[in-house]
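Project channel, design review

CF: Before we commit to the Spizellomyces punctatus constructs, I'd like one complete example in the thread so the newer folks can see what an input/output pair looks like. Taking Thioredoxin-like fold domain-containing protein.
RD: sounds good, go ahead.
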Amino acid sequence: MTSQLDTLLNVLRTTTVAGVSLSTILQGAAIAIIGSFAISKLSGKKRTVDAAKKPRDTVLLYQFYTSDKAKVQLSPPCLKLEAYLRVNKVPYKDCRVHSPAGSPKKTAPYVEYNDMGMADSTLIIDWLEKNGVVSPMDAHLTPVEKAQVEAFRYLFEEGLYWQMLHSRWQHDPNWAFVRNLFFFKVPGIFKYILAFLVRRGQVKALKTQKIGRHTFEETLIFSGKVIQAASDLLGDKKYMLSNTRMCSLDMIAFANLSNVLYLDLPDSRMQQQVAAKKNLVDYCDRMMAEIFPNGYGR
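CF: and here is what came back for Thioredoxin-like fold domain-containing protein:
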């Protein structure tokens, strides 16, 4: 029996498909099956509020669970949207999910509002304003200021956001810390399997986006430029474009900068880039106190 098992194992190791050993393929399949089972158990078949219990004219905000060890929501898009809803005094219900499986785009945040369901924080905000749920937050801005909002939105959401993800998911010195922080609610071995699968997907996305093809040291060069630009734009003002009134850029800037500043990773060099800019530190602390006066999640 032992010799037969040894023979089988040897066949699995030596047989290849497209240059990959059969044993490796089977191991990958096993991990994928177990991972899918874990995700299905955690996400459930339905991650929405029952129709009979849905409040009318209230945004149902679906966003990721956040560890008590985190000072803010660890997803900048989720934090951006929740901050927007709070600043604009939009009634909302905070719904937490393990997985965005119920999202129209399989991403978080996503929302339901009466009979509307939508994903992507920017598209959600646009919809709320165009449909009269919220008065346009940037209506008071000049055309040049609106151009600044759009340019810096892109700089934060397509620049610093991905650079921050690199520091969390691809940079090995930070991985064990990130795994325990993000998957704290996942029991037993499922935590490690699910973390492995999610990390693999994140690294693939980072490489597709191209920032993942750089070393972390190179990524720090890019993040340093974004952070310097944000500091220069803010200057000594209270908000990004004004001393008196927030605009949508403040939701974006706060969500992304605070996610770098308030998370103490083992390799904290990106965090230190923000911490070195006193005006950005004061800005994040000020925004936090205004939007979440009792602390995030309270």
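RD: helpful, thanks. The chain is about 60% helix and 10% strand.
CF: The first strand starts at residue 16 and ends at 17.
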